[in-house]
Amino acid sequence: MANSNYVSHDHILPPVSEEPFALSSQQQLLYEVLGEFDNPMARIYLGAIFVLGDSKNPDRLALAAHNFRELLSRLPKRLGLDTKSFQEKLDSELFSLREQWDRAQRNSKCRRSDSWDGEIDPPLLKFLSLIPTFFDWYDSIRPRRKQVVTRALRKLDPAPVNLPSHIEQEHWQEWQALYSYFAAVAHHEKHVNMEEFQSQVNRLEIYLVTRLRPRTFEDIKDIENLIRRAEGND
């Protein structure tokens, strides 16, 4: 006998998308490059593209952003380098700071419901005194992450010598900008539309292909030869 108390959720859950799934030429190239470099990264990327293509998923941007951020995180790990210790220390310090903030809100007489009023009292002053210490610590440890990522990018470059420092700085800044963007979207801290998100995905794809399959001197030479031959036929 059917359960009379059963309530169908078919009207609540959106139907699974049946839209055709296909990779663009750029996506196919990156998928192949990632597969050669690290199979888990290729799967992570494909999962992101699959989710992003599901227009019936109301949270597809955040879910895809999580995978795109993970791609950037795994890059140093795959090369034997890691930013995990930085993140663990940051999480620990933030947790401690959050506890102090909660304590200040409970104990300070300056707290008025959802606002602050009056002279700074000892509980609030104690918390405020922690802020400069936290940011001094953050500024001291943050370069380690930059160093780890820069070393990873150096490992990917086939050149026998390091790139000029200003180019390495540009590569790091691009990594950091992409990571921060996708982390913010993944945590629902940044609200974006599909057009903007797609432009950042395109930027990420170009960045990863360029880093993982950089053009060698021979590639450049071949291009120059093709240009010369084309000019000779004019």
Which features characterize this protein?
single chain; mainly alpha; two-stranded antiparallel sheet; 2% strand; disordered N terminus; 234 residues
State which percent range the strand residues make up.
under 5%
Biggest sheet, spatial arrangement of strands: 1-2
Helix content: 55-70%
The whole-number mean of residue pLDDT values reads: 82
Query: How many strand units?
Result: 2
Helical region count?
Answer: 8
Distance between the termini: 83 Å
Shape descriptor reads globular
Which class best fits the helix and strand makeup? mainly alpha
**Structural Rg:** 24 Å
Low-pLDDT runs of 5+ residues are 1-17
What order do the helices and strands follow? HHHHEEHHHH
Largest sheet: 2 strands, antiparallel
Structure notes:
The chain has 234 residues and is mainly alpha-helical. The chain has a domain at 25-82 and 145-227. It has helices at 25-37, 39-52, 60-78, 84-107, 122-156, 165-186, 194-212, 217-232, and strands spanning 111-112, 115-116. Helix 1 packs antiparallel against helix 2 (39-52) and helix 2 runs antiparallel to helix 3 (60-78). The longest helix is centred in the middle third of the chain and has 35 residues, at 122-156. Mean pLDDT is 82; it is low at 1-17.
